[in-house]
Amino acid sequence: MDWEHVYRNLKHLNWVILLLLASASCFVMSPAFTAGIIVGGLMVIVNFHAFQHTIRQGFFPDDTRKAGKVSVIAKYYLRLAAMGILIYLSLSQKWIDPVGLTVGLSIVVIGIVSLGILMIRTTFSKEAS
């Protein structure tokens, strides 16, 4: 299985999970909790996409814009600091619920686990037939 195919599926799955969690939360939970899911989900999806782009620049030989190790590490820490500042501001101003933010920040993990389960299920269903 090629990385482009896996990454495309994971990207779509992350957006679907964010949509489902935010929609369900909209009807059941408070607006601050729903905002936490949306803000956390958007932050982690954008961070995951940027991280994938940075890793690709730094380590894949077919890319002409090869970045150095120091550049990859610096971008990682800048993104981490930016996320920390956004989380701090959002929570200190009480714009979002901390538990909702935690759920939103878990979207990529949920997506990776779900994609793994789907891939195992697909592999076993192909072997059975």
Give a summary of the structure in a few sentences:
The chain has 129 residues and is mainly alpha-helical.
Question: Can you offer a commentary on this structure?
Answer:
This protein has 129 residues and is mainly alpha-helical. It has one domain. Helix content is 84%, strand content 0%. α2 (31-59) packs antiparallel against α3 (69-92).
**What structural category characterises the helix and strand content?**
mainly alpha
As a percent range, the share of strand residues is under 5%
Order of helices and strands: HHHHH
Biggest beta sheet summary = none
- Low-confidence parts, pLDDT < 50 over ≥5 residues? none
Helix content: over 70%
What's the mean pLDDT score? Answer: 87
The overall strand count is: 0
Rg, Cα atoms, Å: 17 Å
Number of helices: 5
Overall geometry? flat
Number of domains: 1
For the termini, the CA-CA separation is 20 Å
Annotation keywords:
129 residues; mainly alpha; 5 helices; 84% helix; 0% strand
Topology record:
Layout: H1 3-28, H2 31-59, H3 69-92, H4 98-105, H5 107-128
